[in-house]
Design a protein that fits this description.
The complex is a heterodimer of chains A (about 775) and B (about 500). With about 775 residues, chain A is of the alpha+beta class. Helix content of chain A is about 30%, strand content about 25%. In chain A, the strands form 7 sheets. In chain A, strands 3-5-1-12-9-10-11-20 form an 8-stranded mixed β-sheet. In chain A, helix 6 packs across helix 7, helix 10 crosses helix 11 and helix 18 runs parallel beside helix 19. Chain B is α+β, with helices and mostly antiparallel strands and about 500 residues long. Among the domains of chain B are: about 160 residues, Ubiquitin-like (UB roll), CATH 3.10.20.30; about 70 residues, [2Fe-2S]-binding domain (DNA polymerase, domain 1, Orthogonal Bundle); about 100 residues, 2-Layer Sandwich (Enolase-like, domain 1), CATH 3.30.390. In chain B, the strands form 5 sheets. In chain B, strands 1-7-8-10-9 form a 5-stranded mixed β-sheet, with helices on one face. Chain B has a 5-stranded mixed β-sheet with strand order 3-2-6-4-5. A 5-stranded antiparallel β-sheet of chain B has the order 11-12-17-13-14. Chains A and B meet through helix 1, helix 17 and helix 19 of A and helix 2, helix 3, helix 4, helix 5 and helix 9 of B. Chain B: Pfam families: CO_deh_flav_C, FAD_binding_5, Fer2_2.
Chain lengths: ~775, ~500
């Protein structure tokens, strides 16, 4: 093992070093209910509370807003409209000026915030908000993506085309050709903690905002923009979120901006926390997609040409729909090489809430399209879809270039699939299931193995940077701050483990502190699975700077070569001398060594030219695969997931417990997206599934009855990432596509596996039964 | 007349008694905990009793025995807490400040990620830990039905529940176990058989002294809102800010807690919760066992009542279809006058029941099916557990000696504006041999019985096809062919 090879095992000499399966840093507080979230914080004296007044129509001209009764209601201190925004009435995260803080003149979706009430209590504000008299001139609206295309609605941002080779020619000359469509539903994040912001006014034009956000820097920019003040007047803090999943990447801006405006106007602290219903109505979700594909393939199931269009319901504004639909295209190949390919995005405007980031960021919709194509070919050829998958995996030179012209250099999917196929006993179980289905009239079973390849890096290349601030105090205790945010994913734990390993001190000597724009500036969203990759590198950089100074000090002080200074087991070894870390730090302080450093990291190698659709947008790929087995009741469409086996690649895990938690959690969340989570708009464009009574995320009793999750312990990142680990947040979200396809197989049994059931997502019991009925009809007709 | 009137409620909050007066009739326990007492461990995730982040344990005396139940504090109204012990997450650690077995297991098994659902999950699992030292997987899953977690995928939480059960020998070190006798003593002291009247500018809260007092109160205040478990009324408050005053709480009335099991029927008082009725109901009607555990989540079943499920008249309530199929009747009381109405006749049309001003549901009587009768109930929902029915069908058929259908009572929820019998379907069956062809005829008749709606739970088309297919499931099962999925088959054998 050369010196650059990372360690395989956790550091035995310290407690809580890198690669240790350590508990979440706040776990002991979570279980006692004393980990404070923003709504739990002690409020400054005189804190006021906000409530938002929402549009009653999906698309309407606002003729007039009579808010007198609202202002006169008991306990009301202020009513804000878009006219009262002192700076710019816009919080568009990409600068397109298409998303007002509070809408004026026209409402573009049902539930769009039109005014804000600030009251002595949240209840007073809420009751007052009901008293508004708003007159609308109702305009035609479009909720659905296909309807938007048919109605000639505009796109919210520029579409993207990826092409390599000649798709039309490839299709024309292919042995076989098939066309199809698929609808993929959206998804609400359903973080358990709804959005919240508390703004505390400061002197001059200053304001401090506590925001449940994945992107404090953006909240800072949006608040300063809306207030019309410089960024340096605004400080944004967040210690932890009660879940984010992408739903708090941009969606917190509105609440923070309104709270800050009100706080400055009234010189009182102002807190805004929408209830669950308003949160689900006001904030964006995963994009629903309509996918149309045209595929050329041969007798062996090998794909030669793909021409596909990915149209997305983006909602009324662009938000992050550009990069989300871009990422759908980046993942429309999943693990498969397409010889001739054209992929087109259509980010469609609709009169619905503006959709946003959600774990996978469009990638899952791309992958689900790729897997549908595989399924179609398999049923056409009468083969196990797994055979078709293997026939199309990226491989060596000539079959290793993506539709965006990045070479897949770190491909391990064949080995992942081979290992999982064996460990899950896939072939034997599939045979058993085929036999079972022949004998079982009502209950049918299905099994599916699906792979994932997921590109890691923000495709907005400049986002791939991070900062950290590390202080070592005189007693040897360490203060850690970085630009990432904690939403439950264990980022702080992992970064602190890395820092513990760098300094060779116990985890408990490191204090994790709230993310704040005042300590680490110009941060990127904690998103794109990049939190640890970026911030742990920045923290390690800060540690190295401090250590270099310490080594130089020790070498000089004790007259040894710098090589003779080592950090080990809570000690500093200087030649033959061994000093406790804390004691040595005290000496360093007395020796006037700077014990604080700002670390920085930027991801190397990446570049992307959107205009030509070429580059290397991803630093590396993460891989994984899952086998899911389900049972389906063909009388009702009900189903259950009987067993799931997962093998997932996180490189060399920084914390196997946290990584397995991410894989399991992503799996069940992704399963919800593809099964029971259904967003339902009525004909007036109103979202009617806006609370857990109507929007059904998985329960404990929905998780796979047998759930075997393993990390590929042989894997390591080819690139020199932080200790050769890989990102884990998003990639496993796509593993439960195997659940969708297993259900699909059970349905396909109705017609003896002769046709692809074309099961759309979410595969609710209703969609499953309707697919069963379709296949029964054609089986009867045959 | 009750002799005394009290103007405050009395209960235990964690380790100390609380006397509270002058609160609003719609004040929820969660708001009071978080805003008044600054006990912020319990979280608001949904304010509708579906996510469980606000879960606390409420202890009450039933037949003199102290039992703790998980409840949703977000929809629990303060007035209902008179005479109870409210134990929040702040009280579920060890007396020495250490972690409880449930908390320690949650930490050890990585059962929290973002941590926001965690206090509620700990509270639910603590309730299980107190009640059941050896929970099966199905018990753990049932306990967690009312707790949503968006981060973990639940696997580590289930493992933590299993691990916590292993630490039984340490039980005496639990705050609730250690203080048991003292808590019982204090709760007994609270029970003084007086009426509670709480006044507030937004209206009155009443807790009647007993069932007779309730009858008088409701006769005096016929526009009042009777609240048993508040699993429905709680949402009128949190979701619609409806004016519900005056509120009359009946959840704690002993006179409405009656469970009578005779050879041929079960009678439930209107205040009996689903959980309290569970063992009697599933023993008398084993065919309803699966349904019973799919009504709401555990917290909702601990609060909600069959009486409330009937009285609110919802077209999608889970219990009316099987109860109608079994020929249940409700006893309505107004002052001292009682009358008995067949449940199917109680529902007049959507939102309207056969209930006079001042009249309330006192009890429901459910006849047992004949031993050789076929009876089954099937609930279809988007998510199996803790979901509202897309449709719910109940089938009750008897055959004559020749194997022909003698009687048929079939009722559906979710298919019409009220829970409703399928009279044409029944007619198509009666007199016919119990056979595949008679089922086919019945399926066709079903389309004449109902014109279901399309909504977010299901389309009209799905509701009809699934309802028709449930007839097939029923027929297959009566022929001994299992035709539905079972989540935990090992429990079915036990």
């Amino acid at each position: 093992m050369d010196a650059k090879t990372p360690i395989l095992q956790p550091d035995a000499a310290i407690r809580g070093g890198a690669h240790e399966a350590r508990r979440h840093d706040s776990a002991h507080k979570h279980v006692r209910g004393d980990a404070p979230y923003i709504d739990d914080m002690i409020e400054p004296a005189g804190t006021l509370h906000g409530w938002l007044g929402l549009s009653a129509h999906a698309h309407a001209k606002i003729v007039s807003m009579d808010l007198d009764a609202v202002r006169a209601a008991p306990g009301v201190r202020l009513v804000l409209t878009g006219e009262d925004v002192p700076g710019v009435n816009d919080i568009s995260p990409t600068g397109r000026h298409d998303e007002p803080v509070l809408a004026t003149g026209e409402a573009l979706y049902h539930g769009q915030p039109l005014f804000a009430v600030i009251g002595e209590t949240r209840e007073a504000a809420r009751r007052a908000a009901q008293l508004a008299k708003i007159s609308y001139e109702v305009l035609p609206h479009v909720s659905d993506v296909v309807a938007a295309m048919e109605a000639g609605y505009p796109m919210v941002t520029e579409p993207l085309t990826l092409r390599r080779g000649d798709a039309a020619a490839g299709l024309a000359k292919a042995q076989h050709r098939l066309k199809g469509e698929m609808r993929v539903g959206g998804q609400d994040h359903f973080y358990l903690e709804s959005h919240i912001a508390m703004a505390i006014p400061g002197e001059d034009d200053e304001v401090t905002v506590w925001s449940s956000t994945q992107h404090p820097s953006e909240v800072q920019h949006m608040v300063s923009h809306a207030l019309g003040v410089a960024s340096n007047a605004v400080t944004v803090n967040v210690r932890r979120m009660g879940g984010g999943f992408g739903g708090k990447e941009t969606q917190g801006n509105q609440f923070a901006a309104i709270a800050a405006i009100a706080a400055k106007k009234l010189n009182r602290a102002v807190k805004i926390r929408p209830d669950r219903d308003d949160d689900m109505i006001i904030t964006g979700k995963r994009h629903d997609f309509h996918i149309a594909y045209d595929v050329g393939y041969d007798d062996d199931g090998r794909i030669h040409a793909v021409d596909a269009t990915f149209a997305a319901r983006c909602g009324f504004s662009s938000d992050l729909s550009g990069p989300v639909t871009d990422r759908a295209l980046f993942h429309a190949d999943n693990c498969y090489f397409y010889e001739d390919v054209r992929l087109v995005s259509k980010p469609m405007m609709t009169n619905t809430v503006s959709n946003t980031a959600f774990r996978g960021f469009g990638g899952p919709q791309g992958v689900v399209g790729a897997e549908r194509i595989i399924e179609e070919i398999a049923y056409k050829l009468g083969r196990d879809p797994l055979e078709i998958r293997k026939a199309n995996f990226y491989a060596g030179p000539g079959r290793d270039v993506t539709p965006y012209h990045q070479r897949v250099e770190d491909n391990i999917i064949a080995r992942v699939v081979e290992d999982l196929e064996a460990s899950s006993d896939y072939q034997v179980r599939r045979e058993e299931i085929l036999e079972f289905n022949e004998m079982s009239p009502v209950i049918r079973r299905g099994i599916s193995l699906t792979p994932v390849k997921f590109g890691i890096s923000f495709t907005a290349t400049w986002y791939n940077q991070a900062g950290a601030l590390v202080h070592v105090y005189q007693d040897g205790s360490i203060h850690l701050n970085h630009g990432g945010t904690e939403m439950g994913q264990g980022l702080n734990t992992k970064v602190a483990q890395v820092l513990a390993a760098e300094f060779q001190v116990d985890f408990d000597s490191i204090r994790i502190t709230a993310t704040t724009t005042g300590k680490v500036p110009n941060t990127s969203a904690t998103a794109a699975s990049s939190g640890t990759d970026l911030n742990a590198m920045a923290a390690a950089d800060a540690a190295r700077q401090i250590k270099e100074r310490l080594v130089a000090f020790a070498a000089e002080q004790y007259r040894v070569s710098p090589d003779a200074v080592r950090f080990e087991a809570n000690h500093v070894h200087i030649g033959d001398l061994s000093l406790p870390f804390a004691g040595f730090i005290k000496q360093a302080y007395m020796g006037r060594v700077q014990l604080s450093a700002a670390g920085f990291y930027k991801t190397p190698k990446i570049h992307w030219d959107r205009a030509s659709g070429t580059g290397r947008p991803f630093y590396y790929y993460a891989y994984g695969a899952a086998v899911s087995e389900v049972s389906v009741d063909t009388l009702t469409g009900e189903y259950q997931v009987d067993r799931v086996d997962v093998l997932h690649d996180v490189g060399r895990s920084l914390n196997p417990a946290i990584d397995i938690g991410q894989v399991e959690g992503a799996f069940v969340q992704g399963m919800g997206w593809l099964t029971t989570e259904e967003l339902w708009w009525d004909d007036k464009g109103r979202l009617r599934t806006h609370a857990p009574s109507t929007y059904k995320i998985p329960l404990a009793s929905d998780r796979p009855r047998i759930f075997n999750v393993k990390l590929a312990d042989w894997a390591e990142n080819r690139e020199p990432t932080i200790r050769r680990s890989k990102a884990v947040g998003e990639p496993p979200f796509m593993l439960p596509i195997s659940v969708l396809e297993a259900i699909s197989m059970a349905v396909a049994s109705i017609d003896d596996y002769r046709q692809c059931p074309r099961l759309d997502a979410p595969a609710t019991p209703e969609r499953v039964l309707m697919a069963v009925e379709r296949l029964k009809d054609s089986a009867g007709a045959a | 007349m009750s002799k005394h009137v009290r103007t405050s409620i009395r209960f235990l909050l964690n380790g100390a008694p609380v006397e509270l007066s002058g609160f609003a009739p719609d004040l929820t326990l969660l708001d009071w905990l978080r805003l008044e007492r600054r006990l912020t461990g319990s979280k608001e995730g949904c304010a509708e009793g579906d996510c469980g982040a606000c879960t606390v344990l409420v202890g009450r005396l039933i037949d003199g025995m102290l039992g703790y139940e998980s409840v949703n504090s977000c929809i629990r109204l303060m007035g209902s807490l008179d005479g109870t012990h409210v134990a929040t997450i702040e009280h579920l650690d060890r007396p020495d400040g250490g972690l409880s077995p449930v908390q320690q297991a949650m930490v050890d098994h990585h059962g929290s990620q973002c941590g926001f659902c965690t206090p509620g999950i700990v509270a639910s699992l603590h309730g299980l830990w107190l009640a059941d030292p050896e929970p099966e997987m199905a018990d753990i899953e049932r306990t967690l039905q009312g707790n949503l977690c968006r981060c973990t995928g639940y696997e580590p939480i289930v493992k933590a529940a299993q691990a916590a059960a292993m630490t039984v020998p340490d039980r005496e070190n639990d705050r609730l176990v250690a203080a048991h006798d003292e808590i019982v003593r204090q709760l007994r002291q609270f029970a003084d058989d007086t009426r509670v009247e709480i006044s507030h500018p937004r209206g009155m809260t009443y807790v009647p002294a007993d069932a007779d007092d309730l009858a008088r109160l409701y006769a005096d205040h016929p526009t009042g809102t009777i609240v048993a478990g508040s699993t429905d009324v709680g949402l009128w408050v949190t979701k619609q800010m409806r004016d519900i005053a005056p509120v009359i709480h009946i959840g704690g009335l002993e006179g409405l807690q009656m469970i009578e099991v005779s050879d041929d029927a079960v009678t439930l008082g209107a205040g009996v919760s689903y959980s309290a009725a569970r063992s009697s109901m599933t023993a008398a009607f084993p065919q309803m066992a699966a349904l019973w555990d799919r009504i709401g989540g555990e917290q909702v079943r601990n609060m909600g009542t069959v009486g409330g499920n009937i009285a609110n008249g919802s077209p999608i309530g889970d219990t009316p279809p099987p109860l109608i199929a079994l020929g249940a009747s409700v006893t309505l009381r107004q002052g001292d006058t009682r009358r008995v109405v067949a449940l199917e006749d109680f529902y007049i049309t959507y939102g309207k029941q056969d209930r006079q001003p001042g009249e309330f549901v006192e009890s429901v009587t459910i006849p047992k099916p004949a031993e050789d009768a076929f009876f089954a109930v099937y609930k279809i929902s988007k998510r199996r557990d803790e979901d509202i029915s897309a449709l719910c069908g109940a089938f009750h058929v008897t055959l004559d000696a020749a194997g022909a259908v003698e009687t048929a009572r079939i009722a559906f929820g979710g298919m019409a504006g009220t829970p409703k019998r399928a009279s044409r379907t029944e007619a198509a069956l009666v007199g016919q041999p119990w056979s595949w062809s008679c089922i086919q005829a019945a399926r066709a008749a079903l389309a004449e019985d109902y014109q279901p709606l399309t909504d977010w739970r299901a389309s009209a088309e799905y509701r009809m096809i699934a309802a028709q297919n449930l007839l097939i499931r029923f027929f297959l099962e009566t022929s001994g062919a299992p035709a539905q999925l079972v989540r935990n088959p090992e429990m079915m054998e036990a």
